[in-house]
Amino acid sequence: MTFNLWHGGDGVKLPRDTTIKYQLEAIRKAEADVVGFEEQTTNQSDHQSRARVLADSLGWKCHVIDESRAVISRYDMEPVGRTKSSQAVLLALPWGSKAVFGVMHLMYTPYEPYDIADRKLLNAKAAEASARETRLHQVQSVLDEIAAYADYPTVLVGDFNEPSCLDWTEEAIRQRGDTLLPFAVNWPATALLIEKGFKDAYREVYPDVTQRPGYTWTSVEGLWRDPEIHDRIDLIYIRGNKLTAENAWIVGEPATLSDMEVNPWPSDHRAVVAELAL
């Protein structure tokens, strides 16, 4: 599961214990075994790692990467490499295998889909150049960190703050029919992962972009832009010959886009959960 907590949950403006209750409900409803968090540190109520609070509530393990990112899991895990703040962990699966699980939270500004809609970016070349300069080094940093574990089944999750290149093809944009989005974009963060052998778990299950857009941004209509530009920016990528995506769901507020509903929903992002077979 990938789950952006929106400033640890403080963004939703509910009492601390209420927010924790619904964060836990989302994880339990998703039947998640491993969760990658973004924005996991609260910045208003107590300035604590919400990931640690949720892990303790579930009786799970916790690995904090930084103020934004953390991994919690029912499985034992250890950081890859030599640093405690590693961006990925090695999960000890119950049947004796191990798998790599990493979390990314890519830079949120500039957000190119808004800039395209606002005519600040006038063509795909400009949009791709902006995104490449803004985020590609972050993706490469994670890939470098897990390079020694290339033979392990690998899952990379995160808030990419950039759409999937699979969702902005010429055909997908034509079918979308949004006059504010006049051209296709080969978004570089996801294109790089695909080039490196990763597969988009949600699109493996639901390849038809028009039928299943899977938008995760945003669950709070009109808060950031009006009209809003919706996109699927919370993603799960998998790599490994024996690792396949069996199912995938969007978890969020009561809405047609949510496959699993939690009310009230405690984030401005919808979460994503994938069922993987190894």
Automatic annotation (TrEMBL):
Keywords: Endonuclease, Hydrolase, Nuclease. It holds the Pfam family Exo_endo_phos. One of its GO terms (molecular function) is endonuclease activity. InterPro entries: Endo/exonu/phosph_ase_sf (IPR036691), Endo/exonuclease/phosphatase (IPR005135). It comes from the Bacteria. Residues 1-269 form the Endonuclease/exonuclease/phosphatase domain. This is Endonuclease. It comes from Parapedobacter defluvii.
